[in-house]
């Protein structure tokens, strides 16, 4: 029963950051585009940055 609920919850949650990054990389057209996308990810395109307003 719990396994079934876990599967449903995973599907409703949406893609993780890692899954979104991988899908973004997989959509690259060529090597140059892939390298550009890798740099975008390294710069934090999919990550939320803290503003440091504490």
Automatic annotation (TrEMBL):
Domain of life: Bacteria
Pfam families, sorted: DUF3563 (PF12086)
Name listed for the protein in its UniProt record: DUF3563 family protein
InterPro entries per UniProt: DUF3563 (IPR021946)
């Amino acid at each position: 029963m719990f396994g079934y609920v876990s599967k449903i919850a995973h599907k409703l949650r949406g893609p993780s950051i890692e899954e979104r990054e991988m899908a973004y990389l997989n959509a690259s057209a060529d090597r140059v585009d892939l390298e550009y996308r890798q740099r975008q990810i390294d710069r934090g395109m999919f990550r939320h940055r803290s503003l440091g307003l504490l």
